[in-house]
Design a protein that fits this description.
The structure is a homodimer. In chain A, about 35% of the residues lie in helices and about 20% in strands. Chain A is built from nine helices and 15 strands. Chain A has a seven-stranded parallel beta sheet with strand order 3-2-1-4-5-7-12, sandwiched between helices. The interface between A and B is medium-sized, with 28 and 28 residues.
Chain lengths: ~300, ~300
């Protein structure tokens, strides 16, 4: 890939994508409000608030990106599902896409979400057959952006893939999310209050997610592609593995918290497209990923 | 209605809405690039390019609109179906909606289109049962805006209706569209080249459309509402009526032009919601509307 433009590069997923891109891009250009801490020799940072845009076109005509990986979006845990800022990100994403194509861009990958699917209709979500009926403002906005982006791509001959993300875990996950909060409690030798943990989800280690996205970006595979492991693991199993890896399983308190309302018992990705069309599979097992995450949290608390 | 904000007030439909609003609004505020020619005593014009927005919120906090009628969109005949500017109007509409609600707005009506429906699945389009599968960039963008606007309204307690427009005719229709071009040819005593005219459509006189929109705006009816006559009339019939009204039927040449490709033979609105929930029906027959349009074109060519 010649010249890659990336947004959201300081986020949980974005920083791992930046690392994965370093080996596969001629040059990398980052658009964002804050400069990533991590060094990346071939990357140039451009300070741009995508939500308060000057006209992006002059900058993009200078950069002349061939590829776009658009990850930036509101992602504050607990907030993003219903934040009105979701509307601003739809608008910002459309402006970015317009400027990218106007400056000669050829290939784009945009981050979508499993929350686009109708969770009441799907257990194993399939790109071709599972109905799209998002139940949240976040899911509606992502899905609406996808519809417009795909029609726009068809009109402009842009090659576009929509990466439908499932559940990510790994270093840099926000500290109050499930895995980090259990890890931090156990590292502090404190009890970890959990829900029942019966819900089963499709978890993928964040470096694997990043690798899948870069593989997708480098390909010409179009339309929606589920990014997941294809395996359903109960939240209980994830938490128990953390307990074993840290040698403190007795500190875990299942049932000490209520389960979130309205969440489906099973939600997993059909990864046929990822396997067959991209010949891609994860490098790490769930346990290997959790072990690396634990190692990273130990370093943070030194 | 206390304070009505309107966009697109200089357009084919908008100017008629402005006239219809005069009787039903406490005050009217127009946002747009150009000031409407027609005088409207209670209306205040604010020069704003919605596509190149400064922050709209300060202005809207001054106006404090209670109602919003959002019609502005790219509408250049032959261009708007595939124009990339459709994306800009999605973004502009979302910004407007955000600012309207942030400044205390309570009720909004946005112009949608029958092009949101799956034309291969529908002959009589019903809001509740006809699949939404737009085939054009224009239809996709309108439909995506609707999805986001409805989810946004549910989140913010905004009362929102989506006015799904069918086929409008009347004074101020762009001169190259079907009815005006036939009228102008016949007024010039020149032949009018037409297609076969076999397709049947739902036509509504533009003043009736405007009246329906203002009635909808003043109500609390929510979600999508078809705005049409509920009657299917062949294009041939419309053209023949123009021929009779102008006394020159012999100048009409059916079959002299190819029919547009990919257009459905029948496309009409189920107007149950409009009739039952708004107790609304058209004031003019097709013939009465055409007669008024002809009178208007005669005045233009004097």
């Amino acid at each position: 890939m010649e010249t890659v433009l990336i947004t959201g590069a300081t986020g949980f997923l974005g920083r791992h994508c930046l690392a994965a891109l370093a080996e596969r891009a001629g040059s990398i250009h980052i658009l964002g409000r804050t400069k990533p801490e991590s060094k990346c020799g071939i990357a140039t940072f451009h300070a741009v608030d995508l939500l308060q845009p000057p006209d992006l076109e002059p900058l993009l005509r200078e950069i002349r990106p061939t590829h776009l990986l658009h990850l930036a979006w509101i992602a504050i845990p607990g907030i993003y599902w219903t934040s009105l800022e979701n509307l601003d990100w739809v608008a910002a994403s459309l402006r970015l896409l317009r400027a990218f194509v106007a400056s000669g861009g050829q290939r784009a990958v945009i981050a979508g979400t499993c929350a686009e699917y109708d969770w009441s209709a799907a257990e194993v979500c399939d790109e071709a057959t599972t109905p799209l009926r998002p139940a949240t403002l976040y899911g509606v906005c992502k899905n609406a952006l996808r519809e417009v982006a795909q029609a726009f791509a068809a009109t402009t001959n842009l090659s576009l893939a929509w990466a439908r993300l499932f559940f990510l875990h790994g270093p840099h996950e926000p500290p109050n999310r499930l895995a980090p909060s259990v890890i931090r409690s156990l590292l502090d030798a404190k009890p970890a209050a959990c829900g029942s943990g019966t819900a089963r989800r499709d978890f993928l280690y964040v470096e694997d997610v990043a690798d899948a996205l870069i593989t997708l970006l480098a390909s010409d595979v179009q339309n929606a592609v589920n990014i997941g492991s294809g395996e359903a693991v109960s939240i209980r199993e994830v938490v128990e593995q953390i307990g074993v890896l840290l040698g403190r399983p007795e500190l875990i308190r299942f049932g000490a918290r209520p389960d979130p309302a309205g969440e489906p018992p099973l939600l997993t990705a059909n990864v046929r497209r990822l396997r067959e069309q991209l010949s891609w599979k994860p490098r790490r097992t769930l346990q290997e990923g959790l072990a690396e995450t634990i190692r990273w949290w130990r370093e943070q608390t030194l």
